[in-house]
Design the sequence.
């Protein structure tokens, strides 16, 4: 809850001008933004932060399983309403292999008495003086599947050239696993030609032996995303009243630097 506030007002400015340094004065009215002293604010405390390497999409491949737990304690004088926390993947990149870590699947659980705001129904209510625990369970896969939606593709015999209509092929897909109706199993993307053409080979990379395939609408490319990855809380939005806009909801980023897990090696 915002308490007393202060702001600055500039009512006059005196300066010198010209080579003779003549005094010049103006009397503007410039009012700064209001700065509030908060009377009530929650306390955030990090709990459990674990990162485990788990079996990935196939034998020998490894994914990451993460749990990040923290508590939110409301002050004695005010309820606190907390929106679903936002998180991001902490990952390393390389000029040769691209982004590390996949697209996470997330599950958020809130421990304690189930209570939501009546107006801001997506926010969890923490009663004055109470504490709730937030558990963010996250899985980072070794493969990210990119489905070529609203498009058609076909494959040429012998050459393995895939021709698409409406596709968005990219250079990042080279090395990925290509699948579509009409093909048995997956094939490796061996070359990028342009956004509507790529070349595929058998998984050993030697040649393409899948034969000609007529158009299909369910082409997908699973791209390997190996490397070290973890997760961290990037921000938490909260407020002191069950109201959508008043007072302005606080998007807190400060104090969350250590709200992160360790890193796990994702093995494609």
Sequence:
């Amino acid at each position: 809850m915002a308490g007393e506030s202060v702001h600055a007002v500039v009512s006059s400015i005196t300066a010198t001008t010209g080579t003779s340094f003549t005094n010049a004065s103006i009397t503007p009215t410039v009012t700064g933004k209001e700065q509030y002293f908060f009377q009530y604010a929650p306390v955030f405390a990090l709990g459990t932060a674990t990162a485990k390497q788990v079996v990935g999409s196939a034998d020998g491949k490894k994914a990451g399983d993460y749990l990040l737990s923290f508590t939110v304690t409301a002050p004695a004088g005010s309820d606190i309403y907390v929106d679903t926390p936002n998180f991001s993947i902490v990952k390393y990149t390389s000029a040769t292999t691209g982004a590390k870590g996949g697209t996470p699947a997330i599950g958020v659980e809130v421990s304690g008495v189930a209570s939501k705001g009546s107006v801001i129904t997506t926010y969890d209510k923490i009663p004055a003086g109470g504490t709730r625990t937030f558990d963010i369970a996250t899985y980072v896969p070794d493969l990210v599947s990119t489905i070529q939606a609203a498009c058609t593709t076909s494959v040429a015999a012998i050459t393995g050239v895939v021709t698409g209509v409406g596709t968005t092929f990219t250079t990042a897909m080279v090395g990925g696993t290509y699948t579509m109706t009409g093909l048995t199993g997956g094939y490796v993307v061996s070359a990028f030609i342009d956004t509507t053409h790529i070349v595929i080979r058998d998984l050993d990379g030697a040649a393409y032996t899948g034969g000609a395939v007529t158009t299909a609408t369910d082409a997908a490319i699973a791209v390997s995303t190996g490397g070290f990855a973890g997760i961290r809380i990037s921000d938490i939005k909260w407020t002191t009243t069950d109201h959508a806009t008043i007072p302005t909801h606080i998007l807190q980023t400060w104090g969350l630097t250590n709200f992160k897990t360790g890193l796990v090696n994702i093995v494609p």
Remarks:
- Residues 92-104 have pLDDT under 50 and may be disordered.
- The first strand starts at residue 2 and ends at 6.
